[in-house]
Amino acid sequence: METCTLRIELESNSRTTAALMAMEDHYCDEGGWAVYPLHGNRDVAMVSLQGLDFGRYDAEGDAYVIDLLNIVPADLVDCYLED
Question: Taking burial as the number of CB atoms within 10 A of a residue's CB, which of 18, 28, 29, 60 is the most buried?
Answer without folding.
Answer: 28
